[in-house]
Amino acid sequence: xxxxxxxxxxxxxxxxxxxxxxxxxxxxxxxxxxxxxxxxxxxxxxxxxxxxxxxxxxxxxxxxxxxxxxxxxxxxxxxxxxxxxxxxxxxxxxxxxxxxxxxxxxxxxxxxxxxxxxxxxxxxxxxxxxxxxxxxxxxxxxxxxxxxxxxxxxxxxxxxxxxxxxxxxxxxxxxxxxxxxxxxxxxxxxxxxxxxxxxxxxxxxxxxxxxxxxxxxxxxxxxxxxxxxxxxxxxxxxxxxxxxxxxxxxxxxxxxxxxxxxxxxxxxxxxxxxxxxxxxxxxxxxxxxxxxxxxxxxxxxxxxxxxxxxxxxxxxxxxxxxxxxxxxxxxxxxxxxxxxxxxxxxxxxxxxxxxxxxxxxxxxxxxxxxxxxxxxxxxxxxxxxxxxxxxxxxxxxxxxxxxxxxxxxxxxxxxxxxxxxxxxxxxxxxxxxxxxxxxxxxxxxxxxxxxxxxxxxxxxxxxxxxxxxxxxxxxxxxxxxxxxxxxxxxxxxxxxxxxxxxxxxxxxxxxxxxxxxxxxxxxxxxxxxxxxxxxxxxxxxxxxxxxxxxxxxxxxxxxxxxxxxxxxxxxxxxxxxxxxxxxxxxxxxxxxxxxxxxxxxxxxxxxxxxxxxxxxxxxxxxxxxxxxxxxxxxxxxxxxxxxxxxxxxxxxxxxxxxxxxxxxxxxxxxxxxxxxxxxxxxxxxxxxxxxxxxxxxxxxxxxxxxxxxxxxxxxxxxxxxxxxxxxxxxxxxxxxxxxxxxxxxxxxxxxxxxxxxxxxxxxxxxxxxxxxxxxxxxxxxxxxxxxxxxxxxxxxxxxxxxx
Length: 803
Known about the structure:
Helix content is 34%, strand content 21%. By secondary structure, the protein is of the alpha/beta class.
C-alpha cells in the first residue's frame, strides 16, 4: 500500500467502527480513503465473515477502485475484491468487498432490506450529494433502524461542512484525516470567451507541460469540449493524448488512468468524472476550464435539460487536488482570482433540484418516503413526481405502488422508460430505453433523430467515425439486458420510434409551428431544432431531451417523428370542449378539440355549448374589455357614486370600485347576462338591476333617503346632486334658483358643495356656506351681474322670499 495520508487515521476509524454503527470519515481529496479503507476492514472482529459493500457514484470509479484494490492484493477483480455496475459485474463466491454504483445498491436494498451477509456499507464521495446516494443512505438507515442494528454505515466525505450530513447522522462518530502533504501551486489565467475555450485550454495545456514535469489532466464540461480542445492541440512528439469520460470503453479508461510509458508524457482531457474517486497516475498539473455540465429539471415543464455552468469552489478544490495526489503540483485555472471568490461554495444537493420520479418510485416500492434524509425531497417536487407515476400507472389512487409499478421499478431505469418498456414490450422499446439511458453514441450531435440511431443499432456495424464505439457497444449491451429481462427477441421495427417514445413522454409531444424548425410543446411552451437540423421538421415530435438555446426556446436534442395517428394510438389525446372568450371576434367561441395539452390535432364548432360555460367565458370577456364596455349612463355613474359616498362612513354599503366589481362579476353580473355571447349583446343589459342586486336589504329606499339624487328648491323644481365630482355632493344651479334659501342644503348631515352659476350657466362662485355668501360676497356678485344680465332677478335682499 502506498504511503497515503489516510493510513494515519485508520486506527481511529477502526476503533470508531468497533464502537458505533454509524461513522463519518472526513478525508480530503488525495488522502486515499477509497482504496485504503475497505481492505482495512477485512480482518476486524465485527465483520465476522460478512461482506463490505462500498458505494461509488460513477461506474468508472467503481471499476477502477475495485481493480486497484485487487491488484494491491496480487489478485484480479472478482476475487476478494469485485465490483457491480448495471452492465458489468466482477463478483465471485469468495468476494468480500463489493464496489457498487448507486443504482445497484438501491436494487440490493429493495430486494433484501436486511442486506443478508453484508456487515458494512460505505458511502464514498458523499459530498457529491447525488440523488441516488442520498436515497441509498436513507434506505440503509431505515434498514439499520428496523432490521439490522448491527449493520455498520460509514459515510466518507471530503468535507464535514454539510448540514445534511449532520441531519441524517446526528449521533455518528466522526473521524478526521489530515490533508495530503503535497502542495498545489495555483495560477489564474483569466476566463476566455466560450467560443475560444478550446484554443485557450489547449494553450494552457502546452504551458502546463512546459513549466514542469509529470503528466497533465485537463477538466472540461463534456465530450464536445474535449473534442474541441483535441482539435486545437499541437504537442511535442513525446506527449500522448488520452480522453476520459463515462462513455469510454473500459480499455480506453484504463489507458487514461495508467502511468505513461517510460520516456513519454501524458495529457488527459477529462470530464468531471475525474474530479474524485479515481487517480490518474502520474499527474502533476491540472488545467481547469472552470465549467460543469449539469442536468437541470424544470418543474414547470416536467423536462430536464443539460446546462453548462460555472463550477463551484468545492468542485474547483477537488480538481486542483488531483495535481497533488502523488507529489507537489500545479493548477491552471481558466478564470480570475476575483471570479474565484464569487463562485458558489458548493453544488446544491441533487435531491433539491432533480427530477424526483425515480426516487418517488423507489419510495413507493419501499413503502414510505418518510425517511431520515440528508435533505428531504421538496414536497411540491415529490408531489409532481407522484402525479407522473400515477399517470404512468405505477401508483393507484391511494398512492400505493401497483403491479405495473413493481415491474417498472425492477427494470432499473427511469420510470418513463420503464413504463415504455412495460407498456409496449417490444424490441423497439428496449433499444430506445438503452439509447436514452446511456450517453448519445452518435458523433454528429446536431442530428436529433432517434430513428436514425435505431437504424444504426439494427445494422450493428456503423461506419468508422460515425459513432463513439465504446458508447455504441454499451447501448447495445443495455438493449440486450432489457430484452433478457422482458424475454423479447428480434430487432426494432422501422418507423415506430415516435409512437413508442410517446409512451415514455406523453407530456413532451410537440407540433410544428411552421417550416423553420420551431415547435409548440404540449405544456404550452416552445422549443426549436438546431440550425443544422432545422431541415428535418416533422409535423409532430415526441421529445426525449432538450439542451442549450434559451430558457424560453430550448433546442431539441433527441426526438422522434410521429404522425397524428401515432398520437391517437398512444392514448394521450382526447376530445375536449373548449368554451372561451375570443378577443379577436369579441365573442364567446365554442369548439370541440381533439388535443394533447396545448397541441390541437382536430377542431370543430360546438353547437350546443353549456350555458354556464358560455356565461363564464362572456364574463372573461368583460374582464378583458373592462367595465367601461358595460352600458353606463350618467345616471348610473352618479348612482354608483352615491353608494360610494355612503360607504365612506358605513361599510355595510357594498364596495362598487372597479377592482371590487371585476372581482365579483360572477356574483352580480353573471345572472343578468345568461344567454349573451357577444360584446354587442351587453347593450341589452339592465345594468341598474344588476348593480342593485349588490345593495343590502331595503337598500334602494335607504339610498334615496340618505343620499338623494336630487334636491327640491323654492322655485318648485328639483335639481340633480352630482356625487362624482368630489368628496361631497355638488349642487350646480343658477343663482336665481337659490334666492330665498337661507342655509346650505345637506346630505347625510353634510352641507353640499354649491356651485353658483350665472344665467348663462357659467360659474360665479363655489361655497359650502350659502348663508355666509348672502351676507358677504353676494353684493359684489350682484353689482357685477346685474348690468350683464338685466332681465334676471338680482334682489338687494336675496332672502326676501324666505320672509
